[in-house]
Give the backbone structure.
Amino acid sequence: MFLRDDHGLGGGGGTVTFGRALAAPAPDRLIDRLRDRAEAIDWTPDLGARIGSAEWFRGAATCLALLAGAWFLSPGLAPRPLIGAAPAPLQGSEWDEARAQSIAPIAWGATTGRHVAAGDLVAPLAETPERPIIELTATLGQGDDLSSAIERAGVSNDDADQVAELVSRRMALDDLKPGTRLDLTLGRRASKSVPRPLEKLAFRARFDLELTIAREDGRLTLTPRPIAIDHTPLRIEGLVGSSLYRSARAAGVPATIVAAYLKAIASHVSIGRVGSSDRFDFIIQRDRAATGEVRLGDLLFAGLDQGHGDKLQLVRWQDDGETQWFSASGKGMIKQAGGGLPVAGHITSTFGRRYHPILHYYRMHEGIDVGAPYGTPIHATAAGTVTLAGHKGGYGNFVSIDAGHNLSMGFGHMSRIAVHRGQHVAAGQVIGYVGSTGLSTGPHVHYEVRRGGRPINPLSVKLTSMAQLAGADLRKFKAQVANLLAVKPASAQLASK
């Protein structure tokens, strides 16, 4: 080791390099310090992390600066055409050559894509010629008539009146249903100032009739074409399964027919007791045209086989405009006064002895009072014959119905009566409207039931009567049942073809 005192060096124990003098480090420049510091900064941090920190705000500032720069350098939102070199417009023979190769001649059927352009000898037409015949279709709208529909299609008033007169000879014009399609053929006209003459009109007037009107020797003539109709009913059978409604719909039965079926059998069988192993049987009115169209009508037969010989068969029977359901033996159940109320309301006074609100003393109340808004329809609770329809003392406007079997019903305090004496009414038919006539404190209906002339509680009456067909009606009914049961089952899809 060398001593400091011996060599005049400033430190002891250090290693000394001989031969080249030590160079002092150059001082840091400002630009270098700024560059190093800038490189250490993360200018684009993840804006989804550390939200609200200094780094996040620095990244947000960088993003805004880039967006501002892009906006400043953009050409703007308004469209600015780029000005370029535009060729001189074609003229003379060059224009004719280019026009002959345009897209229009190709669309007109050119095979080479090139047509000879019109020359000087080609003269434009004074007016465009019309087509000699026009075929079009019109549709009869709701509340529309035949004459107006074809006039809108371009037929003259005279031709439209002749068409209406010819059709009226074959059928009533009001029987034409909205949506009827009219196929028209219009001929050549003498000038554009007059309507085209009607050459032919064809349409389906009814399901079983097609009409054609054509011009022959200058006159319009009508030619009817009857269409053969097969009236064989449609019969659909199937297993009830998990749901009677869904199974019937899956078999092709329309929803309205299923609803009618459920309503028919509900008066004989509890719908909740229909099992999954039971079988349903529908027979539906059906018309099949020779042209292929199918039209379904009403439900004619409702059957339910619950096994063990328990089979329900109901047949739709219509007599004097009234529709009823009878069993295959000709018996029909009619519920009379089954405890239901004649009006949709609430009971305000019960049957029995009570204090009269107007006379102010106790007396026998021979019925029940059902409160309801003024003018609410009142329905007959049983089928029968009207024996009284007028004013009856304290009852005001009163209607009495004889339901047979020594049973009668009375309805009082009506605002208006909708039936007359001697009229036969059906169960559920509207016979009047709620009011407050007679000795009454407000709008309601007094409803009473009498057996043998003696008043009984209407809510306790649970009577049914059986309607039985006899004589010629029974023979006709039996023949109808036999015809229906002879129909072979088929699916709706197969039967509609």
